[in-house]
Amino acid sequence: MASLLDPLLLARVQFAFTVSFHFIFPSFSIGLASFLMVLEGLWLKTGKSIYLDLFRFWLKIFAVAFAMGVVSGIVMSYQFGTNWAVFSDKAGPVIGPLMAYEVLTAFFLEAGFLGVMLFGMNKVGKGLHFAATCMVALGTFISAFWILSVNSWMQTPTGYEIAANGQFLPGPSWWAIVFNSSFPYRLIHTVLAAYLTTAFAVGGAGAWHLLKDPANAHARKMFSMAMWMAALVTPMQILAGDQHGLNTLEHQPAKVMAMEGHFQSHPDGAPLVLFGIPDSEAQTMHYSVEIPKASSLILKHDLDAPLAGLDSVAPEDRPPVGPVFWAFRLMVGIGTAMLGVGLWSLVARWRGKLYDWRLLHRAALLMSPAGFVAVIAGWVTTEVGRQPWTIYGLLRTADSASPLGAPAVGASLLAFVVVYFAVFGIGVWYLLRLMAHTPHSGETGVAGQETGPVRTSGIVPGTAPRLEREP
Question: Which residues cross the membrane (predicted)?
């Protein structure tokens, strides 16, 4: 019970809770913004109204998801000052400018063109509206660029100097900070994850409508496009994940040891632990199901390559194995299932049965939330595997927290839980309701019935109704 009242643990739980809620919305909106850009581009190129209908159908969903992502993200920045003031003080000279760049380049770009994208279809030219859509999509990518640069620097810090007061200061080159050792791998892996998350969400919606009406042309089109993305991008993501894992082995070996469940070192080739029950206290894996030497083959491309275990790491520097071990397997398992659905769709497409195989549609519907689960599992693997460090190898999490008491942190955590489940629960319900709406010809998008300028006071000059004179 005493450990549950630890202010450090409560602060970590609070940040984990808010990040988990936030992460699902950008992982959806990044891919959905690009999907909208493709739909509008295809409409302009082909003139087919089905692409415009789908653009307007998903535009409403994007607007809600984007808004919830912005609101949930703002809260996290306040926690840097309330719960993690020591970290903010020490790392602020490095991460502060990077996060400011995200606001100045990405958020301003999105905010500047979002209104045109949402409400300007009938008010500006087609080319200008498409440019606005492209800018919003670009803004989501730039936002991911800067946020992942910050996170990657915390994972693999480079290009810094430590001042006499213990602060991390930027070195002579900002490029060494921005493009740190793990950043390119993390950026590619995360952006591809966002595209797959969107693909399976779109595919699940298309499958839902195909199960109700196999002849619905709009459902067919969105399902076909989503399955192309699943079939093509999933193998790319598996390759990117493999390269990211090799980079992690180089710079954060303890994290990989926890992911693999290697408590002991293996000088003559390490097994691939498929399943088991990690026991961090006893430093062993119970009921382990293994493939001999397969881990050495994957990580070192040599069956007999030695791999160090957690017994080579000081006890105070070891990450918690259980959450990392299982989150990694959940992420890999979902990725394997995604690959299976993508290949299944290729077989169905080749046999001309893409819109007829009901079992495939049910599988796609079942997989529709899989991307969201996978990105959260990947986040847990990355962040819990970094422990006990906030800045890997340099600043411990225990030394990063604000000097707050457990009641203060616990009260704010309880407030977050209540508000988040109420507000974002309603938001997710509304998103699902929008997706359940059957796509059809003549979709109206997010525009209301107002055809002129927004009336903020009285009526617009020149539009007042004429009064008939009395005889």
Answer: 20-45, 57-78, 98-120, 127-148, 187-211, 223-240, 326-347, 359-380, 409-432
41: in domain: no
Q: Number of folded domains in the chain? A: 1
pLDDT, tens digit, 9 for 90 and up, residues 363-394: 999 999 999 999 999 999 999 999 999 999 99
- Per the domain annotation, does 251 fall within a domain? yes
Provide mean pLDDT across the span 52-70: 90
Closest of 67, 338, 332, 69 to residue 197, by C-alpha:
338
* Contact criterion met (CB below 8 Å) for 264 and 288: no
CA-to-CA separations, 279 to 317, 330, 421, in angstroms, rounded: 16, 19, 33
In a domain, 90, yes or no: no
The pLDDT > 70 percentage for the chain reads 93
pLDDT at residue 316 greater than cutoff 60: yes
Residue whose C-alpha is closest to residue 11's, from 69, 78, 95: 78
What is the Cα–Cα distance from 348 to 357, expressed in whole angstroms?
7
Q: Cis check for the bond before 388: say yes or no (omega within 30 of 0).
A: yes
Q: Which amino acid is at 167?
A: Q
- For the chain, give the number of residues: 471
**Alpha carbons 177 and 158: distance in angstroms, whole number:** 6
For the chain, the C-alpha Rg in angstroms (whole number) is 25
Task: Quote the pTM value.
Answer: 0.89
Residue 344 predicted with pLDDT over 60: yes
In a domain, 365, yes or no: yes
Range of the domain at 285: 184-393
